[in-house]
Amino acid sequence: MLSNSLVELDRAHLIHPVASWRGHEAAGVRILSSGKGAVVRDATGRELIDGFAGLWCVNAGYGQESVVAAATEQMRDLCYATGYFGIGSDPAIRLAARLADHAPGDLNHVYFTLGGSDAVDSTVRFVRYYWHSRGKPQKDQFITLEYGYHGSSTVGAGLTALPAFHAGFGVPYDWQHKIPSPYPYRNPLGSDVEAMIAQSKAQLLAKIEELGGADRVAAFYAEPIQGSGGVIVPPKGWLKAMRDLCAKNDILFVADEVITAFGRTGPLFACSEEGIVPDMITTAKGLTSAYVPMGAVFMSEHVYQTIADGAGQAAVGHGYTYSAHPVSAAVGLAVLDLYEGSLLDNGRRMGDRLQAGLQSLSDHPLVGDVRGRGMLAAIELVTDKDKKTQLPAASLPATRIFERAWEAGLVARAFAWGVIGYAPPLCCTEAEIDAIVERTRIVLDQTL
Ligand code: PLP
């Protein structure tokens, strides 16, 4: 009864993000009521394994008491302190220091935001400020990757290359450019790592040339693994090659780790595993494990010092009311305790199990590709494995895969062109990982 009236209230009043508004009105909302570990419960009391950790964000799992306690205590002690006027709070300072300790290389300076989109936006502003400070304001062109996702703000949606984020909105801006994604499964050079890397380098150099040379290009952005584009894993060494090419051409390299950081691929930062130190890293999601909103920009020593010198005694005019919010920071500290405890190790072990389990689905007639790293994975469905024929969208809408998975007791992300994505909480048990794989096979069999 209560649930039915909520469905009607939702239909009448709540606008959902990235949804077909008409489709949602017809289908109605699925209401989640509670969660513990990797399991969520809907309003009817049905339990599902959350194979997507909400939106690749509840890395620590639901209902972690230490996180709840940290938030409660901080709200009671001091619910808010601005970062403006030289004011700060204990948890924000300690979180910045602890994160800087973990971040790759000299990414020693942390700027807190409310989530990933405004973290990306902040880097765009910092990149611009950096080049002004260096006396090169003409370096104002930005390059990103096809299949890339960098948020849904006006600027971030333009850096994003997914068509749904552009249609009807009139973005991207003319200073936002794309080069092809290193998509091994869909690239004829896919099995030749060296050739793929050489191809991407040539594509970046060609784009730089087209834009008038390196003296016009401000920054290149890449996700270490492209998440919302379909969990596209570049070949080993690709990220380092692109980072080095940017350094050689005096172009800033920004790694967007909003999904890949905080144990999602194994370590706290995917860049550490790749052996690279970007000029800036963006994060969000696992930073607070989604208990409260927060994002962060990690800034290298030279970017920080250049901007600081450029500004002199003037204010660097960028900030949000909720930058470095003390409750979010207290949650971040409690979540970091969990990562430093057993969570990262468990995530690594469960990640190996997930990847092996999904590989066991390769024999299924619909499975063309299985890919991922750690607790981030995808399977790509095709109608013809040799020709890699994508499923006709009309015969297999993503919503139908999502609905079948839900019926089977699994929350998994279905992408429009027939990719199923996985990002379970790092606290999963072996039995839960096995159930994710078993339930996926049920969905695939029903889809045949
Ligand atoms: N960048 C990447 C790589 C993302 O995956 C996302 C969100 O999924 C964002 C930025 C935007 O983050 P948010 O949704 O917190 O604004």
From TrEMBL:
Belongs to the class-III pyridoxal-phosphate-dependent aminotransferase family. It comes from Roseibium suaedae. CDD domains: OAT_like. GO terms for molecular function: pyridoxal phosphate binding; transaminase activity. Its cofactor is pyridoxal 5'-phosphate. NCBIfam families: PRK05965.1. It holds the Pfam family Aminotran_3. Keywords: Aminotransferase, Pyridoxal phosphate, Transferase. InterPro entries: Aminotrans_3 (IPR005814), Aminotrans_3_PPA_site (IPR049704), PyrdxlP-dep_Trfase (IPR015424), PyrdxlP-dep_Trfase_major (IPR015421), PyrdxlP-dep_Trfase_small (IPR015422). This is Adenosylmethionine-8-amino-7-oxononanoate aminotransferase.
